[in-house]
Design goal:
Blueprint lengths: L16 H8 L4 E7 L5 H14 L4 E5 H5 L10 H20 L3 E5 L5 H11 L3 E6 L3 H7 L4 H6 L21 E3 L6 H16 L2
Parallel strand pairs: 1-3, 1-4, 2-3, 4-5
Helix pairs in contact: 2-8, 4-5
Length: 199
Amino acid sequence: MAHISQNMSRVEHRIEPDERHAKNGHLGGVVWLTGLSGSGKSTLAFTLKKHLFDQGYQTYVLDGDNIRHGLSGNLGFSEQDRRENIRRVSEVAGLFARCGVITIAAFISPYHEERRLAREIAGDGFIEVHLSASIEVCEARDPKGLYKKARAGQIPDFTGIDAPYEVPEHAELVLDTGSRTVEDCTQELSAIIHSRLCR
């Protein structure tokens, strides 16, 4: 990553978090969905977004595939590029949270260090959610055919096959999306968001 110029300085915002809280009726925060490919991150993220939106929450989804078409369109899938992708997303999610938006980030994010950075940037409003569907369940689903390609050697360093996934140790919530319905998971997650961000 390039070094920050010595000629830069931060500009302070003129709207306080309490003002945004009062206007929106809730705090901003980052709901970080992590899990293997096929664990249901995107499905849960967009279902949750609609659920929250219908209740009047300000909310937005940052999804792994969508980000790769724009913000991280210049990155590949080396370990270094994957870490840079998550760093960028963490910064964007933190910005959204600070302007009062409940930001739902759906990324495999397989490493402890990546998720620690995301938590550090987001601050108190960070909610880590581990979608714990097993590799067997995810590979059986294989909605994008990625596991099949990985097994055939067409996708190197694929998480869960020949690259590691470090299971979260301190997630605020663990959801077994291999056995529970999307609706059930959405309700439980919504309850946590309400208790944490609607004071």
